[in-house]
Amino acid sequence: MRPRVEEVRIQGLGVIDEAVLALSPGFTVVTGETGAGKTMVVTGLGLLFGGRADPARVRPGADKATVEGTLVVDPRGRVAQQVEDLGGVVEDGELIVSRTVSAEGRSRAWLGGRGVPVGTLTYLAEDLVAVHGQMDQQRLLQPGRQRAALDRYAGDELVKPLRAYEQAYKRHREVAEQLAELTTRARERSQEADLLRFGLEEVEKADPKPGEDAGLLEEEERLSHADALRTAAETAHTALLGDPMSAEQAVQDAASLVGQARAAVDAVRDFDPALAGLADRLAEAGYLISDIATELAGYAESIEADPARLAAVQERRAVLTHLVRKYGEDTAAVLGWAEQAARRLAELEGDDDRIGDLTREQEELTGRLTELAAELTRIRRAAAERFGRAVTEELTALAMPHARVVVEIGEAADFGPQGVDEVELRMSPHPASPPLPLNKGASGGELSRVMLAIEVVFAGADPVPTFVFDEVDAGVGGKAAVEIGRRLAHLARTAQVIVVTHLPQVAAFADQHLVVEKADDGSVVRSGVVALDRDGRIRELSRMLAGLEDSELGRAHAEELLAAAAAAKE
Fold first, then answer.
1. Which CA distances in Å does 101 have to 51, 123, 200, 395?
2. Pick from 205, 236, 312, 520: most CB atoms within 10 A?
3. Can you tell me the mean pLDDT for 343-353?
4. Which stretches make up the RecF/RecN/SMC N-terminal domain (predicted)?
5. Of residues 51, 52, 28, the one with CA closest to residue 38
């Protein structure tokens, strides 16, 4: 299912107070008296799809202008997926798009109920609508769009080589970026490698062991306080067992006191089991005191001041502290850094080999891209020639018999994502003038007709579902106007076409006819946009033909126009 615009509501825009446009598939024409607000319909559609917000367009006395559109889209299609990715909602295949412009110039946009940047509407519109208004930025005037449209016109012949080129181009970019990093940062990488080598040499020379720094700290503490440790152990030993070398015992030792307590209790332990348990515990205490005293004696004998060893420990600790300060929190972390540094150094030292491999691959890819780009250019030039002839033929029928459209294909300075071709549509309005870019070679009215001719030729190749034309028939009449109507109807076979016109010959080809009615005060009220039935169309065409709605001659001519248009469409 192709997306289309189903309904548009406009409030406070230009002369329009409030209007509702119910749009059908196919060809819809909008007519009305001068000043009724026809062009504001196109302006509203332009705003709805990201057009420039002009606060001067806000209706005098209104705080803001609001345009809200209801679009019918495929719930499983690309547009619906894009909206859901942005947090919006597509409900029952309907998408609500809204845009407001305040009198102060502030602009806000909503998509599927979610506020979005206005640029999001512009991006989405690329796949939904092409607005061709006298003052609008034309979609096909953008160089990238012109190339993409020509590629679609070229058809299947271009698909395979273009896909191969895009794959080669992507890899070429990756290789170029890697080479640029390796070569432009050669000095930095060389400096990094030197620093890593220096650090690894420091670690290798010191040869630290996991946990070595903690063990050395303990040893340094012990050696630095050897005298105090030995004195403390000897004092504790004397307190527990006494000093056998002393002739006098000024204070009884702990072992003797515990022994006295045990002897006193043992004498009467048989008389009370509770006291017997305490006697056993006193015996255990005596044994424990004896064991501790023995260990204290051994410790005191093992403690020995060793200035040479202390100096060696302090020197080793200074070496490890230097490493820890630079490379990690402890020796284990230093060793971990050394492992990572060795791997990184191996990677840096292999850069020369990588540069050689990447350079060879880049040369191969450049040759491949050159071949594929030449093939793309050949196909595009052939398609451009066919396209130019087809558009020129269309312009002849659209009252521009001397105009000629050509597609200039230039060569870019370097490879691009789709080749080396720079595509530009050019037009010469008469044989004596050189082809100029479309926006310079055609006036406003001519440009609309050129765009119509292009869209007719591109129909099916450039799959935009909705086209909007404003005053596409400016400056023409008679047979040329009939041809414009015929071509709009042809375009409407594959897309929704909305046209603002003042020519009855064009309006007669429409599938749906809307008229913008002008109120007495010059504004448009809610009922100002009316969908006409056949009799209403005859009256409106009669007004456009003769200025008189009820003129019998005008009505007869209007009926003749409708019949001729219906026969032409069939």
1. 11, 19, 66, 37
2. 236
3. 79
4. 6-521
5. 28
